Amino acid sequence: MCKLDIQPQHFEIVKQILRTYLPDYEVRAFGSRVKQTATTFSDLDLAVMSEKPLSLRQLCQVEQAFSDSDLPWKVDVVDWAATTPAFQAIIMQKSIVIQQQKTA
Prior knowledge:
- Residues 27-102 form the Polymerase beta nucleotidyltransferase domain.
- There is one protein chain.
- This protein has helices at residues 8-21, 32-35, 56-68, 85-93, and strands at residues 27-30, 44-48, 75-79, 95-99.
- By secondary structure, it is an alpha+beta fold.
- It has a single domain, classed as 2-Layer Sandwich (Beta Polymerase, domain 2).
- A four-stranded mixed beta sheet has the order 3-2-1-4.
- Helix 1 packs antiparallel against helix 3 (56-68).
- The longest helix is centred in the N-terminal third of the chain and has 14 residues, at 8-21.
- The radius of gyration is 13 Å and the shape is globular.
- The relative contact order is 0.26.
- The model has no long low-confidence stretch (mean pLDDT 94).
């Protein structure tokens, strides 16, 4: 299993924001913080595994929450349904689930 290269206290902030703004979606981390190639201020890349594109309001709210948080780096949120198949393949090459999809 891959490990996410962030401090535990920062991971708690990430999880809390996701639970607040995107509670119904699976969310995957990908990029340098999963590949273990991150530098101190590398961003955290997150993919929201949506079947239909997220609303602009949802995206703005979660992005603003990350921006307003005490995280020492930027968080980039990608809407799975709005990405190309080529980019989806890149995400799936090496990603880890950090939030499970809520089941009904």
